Amino acid sequence: MADSSSLALQSCHWRHHVFPSFSGKDVRRTFLSHLLKEFRRKGIRTFIDNDIKRSQMIGPELVKAIRESKIVVVVLSRTYASSSWCLNELVEIKKASKKVMPVFYEVDPSDVRKLRGEFGKTFEEACIGKSEEMKQSWREALVYVANIAGQSSQNWDNEAYMIEKIVMSISNELNSIPSRDSDNLVGIDAHMREMDSLLCLESTEVKMMGIWGPAGIGKTTIARALFNRLSENFHHTIFMENVKGSYWRSELDGYGFKLRLQEQFLSEVIDHKHMKIHDLGTVKERLQDLKVLVVLDDVDRLEQLDALVEQSQWFGSGSRIIVTTENKQLLRAYGIKLIYELGFPSRSESLQIFCHYAFGQSAAPDGCIELATEITKLAGYLPLALKVLGSSLRGMNKDEQKSALPRLRSSLNEDVRNVLRVSYDGLHEKDKSIFLHIACLFSRENVDYVKQLLASSGLDVNFGIQVLANRSLIYISRCNHTIMMHSLLEQLGREVVCEQSFDEPGKRQFLVDASDIYDVLADNTGTGAVLGISLDISKISEWFLNERSFGGMHNLMFLKLYKTSSSSKNQTELHLPRGLDYLPRKLRLLHWDAYPMTSMPPSFRPEFLVVLNLRESKLETLWEGIQPLRSLTHMDLSMSENLKEIPDLSKAVNIEELCLSYCRSLVTLPPSIKNLKKLLVLDMECCSKMENYNRRSSDNNRVLAESGSIGHVRLQEPQRISMSTGNYRMVGFEQDRNRRSPILDRESLSAQQTIDEQLHEAKKHLFWDC
Length: 770
Hints:
alpha/beta; Rossmann fold; 5-stranded parallel β-sheet; 30 helices; disordered N terminus
């Protein structure tokens, strides 16, 4: 049996189902002719050697035919051992490690095994004049075949029935041998190489490997391809598909559940149908000496692994156990250290997958490239979605495919939704809530920022985010710690929210559709169910609100009215003829680009506010008096060109960032800034009136100098204030070549780094690029 990793993953395409090895003078015109006829009737392709001239040694053409056949049928008859051709053929069959079915035709199996009787005599005659090495290889090959269970004509009264039995056995065996269809899968070879290196097939150790990735990424497909390629190296194999869906505990207790699971498992591994076991030690007892290949597909519970593969000692040397799951923590908890993370295919691979299902070819036909590219993007490069969407468009003409686009853009395909929904439904209720928050509000946001906003939600956000990451429902970027959620999962989350109230969007938890949001705000139909609103206002040209648009949404915590475009073509006209009287006091995030009022509503109490972002606002002042701002950590009023003053911030004791760049009317900072012990970033770039004010008075400089809150603060010149953050000193009011911009004080630069390098590094840490 071949056992090297390189051999295990060779691509092999079977040309023949069966290779028959026989002595022509005994069976060609009789038994063999009937057998071959029955093979043809059953659609079994058989190698025929009519055109091959027989000699003492078999040629390369015959060796190739043996290797390209799935099964070998060896017909051992009276004169089989007298033929050097047959014996050499048998040696090649043994070398090729093929599945062999021996047929003992008018010979005693024990005579073949022990090389005695008439069969033994003919063998001895064939050995005359041959080398000891050749004679030994012939003996080993005959004994090897004779020890395999097969059919004997001595046990049959009716030869026709024996032939029927042989053909049925071969047919069943062919059905159980994995095909090589997976060889044509896009990108499959790269996956196989990487998993091959993890599995280290030449090792005699028992190894367990996990295949981890989100629903629809192709874990089952990849695992099946790997199973097909490795199966020929193992005497015993099993692929248990959809363990999560097929093996529920139902009414059984934990012990009973494991027994039933083990019965199913063992029945398939050792081919013992309807097996009954009564002890959980049976798997170890039966398999500890066997080299097995086990694939457990779509596992979602530890008890499933406990029942089937609790310890590596349950299996014989060289065994391999492969587990696919959406839950990385499950693999870790079970001590599986070899984990293959299945990533998304590239754009070109995704396009190829889609075209295969949509057009039956690897590339889009002329005139369909743009359409194929858009649908591939809509599928989010998820293999399941590429397959489903491609298949749904198969057979349509170009116009029909284009007409399907609007629905594909606005809603999930039902088959894709059903697969993704299983992952969501399996979450704890708190984790479901976090999933919906991210899908509707916080995808592509910094993970620490999201944790801050959800800190008091009672959702156990730190643990919940980790659960979502382990289950492949979100991905946290390592470079900038951003939470990323796949576009189809975002769409799923938003559809789940829509299901909360199809006809009355004001009764949903989150509002993200522009028309729904406009209707709710314009008609005052928001309710206490609404927790968050997220709207790109640059997509709305004109909208009308009234003073009580947020009146019914007393539980609103997250309000994001942001702009993704600064183009004059996308300017939004917001009409508030009576102003704005009310904003909910439970707001934790208030992000309103181009806020249209000159101040906040007088009744607004921002006691829970964590982030206040009112860039490009019409504000002249925020509010009167002292507000409870203990929760506030970030305030950004950048480019609010009419802002004249900052209110008393003495209660904002946890504020870390205050961005005031391009507030060209801002004249002074409040004395309360000296109490901001946690302030790390103060950005006042291009606050031109502040600069003029500083030239007239040192009051502001004194305020900043008295504050120990911004790291080191010192006066350098009357017109310049420097503030250092960490190892970098940001200088706020230096006039450089008629352009006002922050510069770096050279005193703080590392000797090992150039100014350009320090500038680049500073930009990564300071929010000065407003």
